[in-house]
Write a structure and sequence with these properties.
This protein is an all-alpha fold. It has a single domain, classed as MetI-like (MetI-like fold, Orthogonal Bundle), CATH 1.10.3720. The chain is built from 14 helices and no strands. It starts with a helix and ends in a 5-residue tail after the last helix.
Length: 290
């Protein structure tokens, strides 16, 4: 018993030691910058005497409804993109796990292949697809579906389609992983008990894959909320989102104090949205009982 306890303690210490680089990375590149943003958001100016330089005026300036409209627009974009990604990702992941036998490795390779290209390069590539003389308009004209080119660039359609393309793998992979871990004998038992395929889906597959669904939702929802490259390039900058407004404060107007305050406010709203999303996902898909 003593040897077993000693081995367990040694293994625990080894795991803690192995996790130290990741923990250090998170502290240096996440918590420290976040701390500086919080400090800057309550300063009047950058001076050494911090305690004599505190103010909440930057937060008061954000009571303008226009700022909360931008946050609401970003939340809507993030939630809509998450729903669209889930609607497409779940059938794909289900097909990969339960229908593909011999080409599964190739299919997964094709899913992760876009990660080999820079995100900005992927976004720019869509210009050649969505422009008036681009691939999509040419294909639709060639098939006789449309009689003249459609205006797709600098529209909400362009933003949503490119966001869907860029973030879809982040939804597929965790769902695929959770579906792959389900005990296949449960499906045999379900069939023997006379359950239909739909009953099996809603009572076994969805609840047991809920952890992957939640992970996929958060992997898509959180970066979509702060996205600014796609709305700026493909949306033409016609509408402000959280990411584009933060970049506007810090880069264009150099209003670092107001930008830091808006970053804190939008981050708080994101945390509230994540909490509500967690409750929503548990109500819809239930808890993972695997």
């Amino acid at each position: 018993m003593k040897n077993t306890g000693f081995k367990t303690a040694a293994l625990r210490e080894r795991h803690i030691f192995a996790s130290m680089p990741a923990l250090l990375w998170q502290i240096v590149f996440f918590y420290v910058p976040l701390f500086f943003i919080l400090v800057v958001s309550v300063l009047k100016r950058l001076e050494y005497s911090i305690f004599d330089n505190l103010t909440v005026q930057h937060y008061k300036a954000l009571f303008d409804p226009a700022y909360y409209k931008i946050i609401s627009r970003s939340l809507l974009l993030a939630f809509s993109n998450s729903i669209l990604c889930f609607a497409i990702a779940y059938p794909i992941a289900y097909f990969l796990v339960f229908r593909i036998k011999h080409l599964k490795s190739l299919m997964i390779f094709l899913l992760v292949l876009p990660f080999w290209a820079n995100f900005l390069v992927q976004v720019y590539a869509w210009f050649f697809v969505l422009e008036r003389g681009g691939f999509l308009n040419s294909a639709l004209l060639g098939l006789g579906i449309i009689s003249e080119p459609l205006h797709m660039l600098n529209t909400p359609f362009a933003i949503y389609i490119v966001m869907l393309f860029c973030y879809l793998p982040f939804m597929i992979m965790p769902i695929y992983s959770s579906l792959e871990g389900i005990n296949k004998s449960l499906y045999e038992a379900s069939s023997d008990l006379g359950a239909s395929s739909w009953q099996t889906l809603f009572r076994i597959t969805l609840p047991l894959s809920s952890s992957g669904i939640r992970t996929g939702f958060f992997l898509v929802f959180i970066p979509s909320f702060g996205e600014f490259i796609v709305p700026t390039l493909l949306g033409g900058g016609k509408q402000m989102f959280v990411g584009s407004l933060i970049s506007y404060f810090f880069i264009e107007t150099r209003s670092i104090f107001l930008g830091a305050a808006f970053t804190c406010v939008s981050g708080f709203m994101l945390l509230v949205a994540i909490a509500l999303l967690t409750v929503f996902l548990r109500l819809v898909f239930g808890r993972d009982r695997a």
